């Protein structure tokens, strides 16, 4: 629907058309597909407690981060639901940079709550794009 509203057509082929295209087109042969590189760098990992129903918060944070740091600044954001006693109440945001282990950017239990996006964006910016202005979300100059 959205693609059509901006003049882009992304039709899905019928099953018959799809089978014919796959047979004649090696680009559509799933045995040749290469999966994404795990932990592309820089990337974000968001872990959240699924029992606490924090999926919407995790997806909102990921959307905001991608809008602020579009590729190639961030190459991937992974959202990982957790559902065990040990991970109850968890909401963590990790930053993965090439050549170093993932760095904890936010932990709900350590920080005493969920991240304000302004602060989280500033922390991430300081690692991936130190000179980037965050506009109204940026620190006031002193």
Describe this structure in words.
- 31% of the residues lie in helices and 18% in strands.
- The chain has helices spanning 2-5, 15-24, 55-68, 108-111, 117-128; strands spanning 43-49, 76-82, 91-96, 103-107.
- Strands 2-1-3-4 form a four-stranded mixed β-sheet.
- Strand 1, helix 3 (55-68) and strand 2 form a beta-alpha-beta unit.
Structural category is alpha+beta
Q: Could you give the count of β-strands?
A: 4
Approximate shape: globular
Series of H and E elements? HHEHEEEHH
- Strands in their spatial order, largest beta sheet: 2-1-3-4
- Main beta-sheet strand count, sense and barrel state: 4 strands, mixed
Q: What Rg, in angstroms, do the CA atoms define?
A: 20 Å
- Give the helix tally: 5
Low-confidence segments, given as residue ranges, are none
What are its keywords?
globular, alpha+beta, 4 strands
Describe how the helices and strands are arranged:
Layout: H1 2-5, H2 15-24, E1 43-49, H3 55-68, E2 76-82, E3 91-96, E4 103-107, H4 108-111, H5 117-128
Parallel strand pairs: 1-2
Antiparallel strand pairs: 1-3, 3-4
